[in-house]
Amino acid sequence: MALLIEGAGYRYAGSTVSALSGVDLQLERGQVIGVVGPNGAGKSTLCLVAVGLAPGVIGGQLAGAVSIDGLATATTPMHRLAQHVGILFQESETQLSSATPTVWEEIAFGPRNLSLPLPEVVERTWSAIEALDIADIVERDPGRLSGGQAQLVALASVLALRPTYLVLDEPTSQLDPHGTQLVVDALQRAARATGAGILIVEHKTDLLARLCDEVIVLADGNVVRQGSAGELLADPALPELGVAPPAAVRMRRAAEAAGLAWDESWV
Question: Comparing 248 with 221, which gets the higher pLDDT?
Answer without folding.
Answer: 221
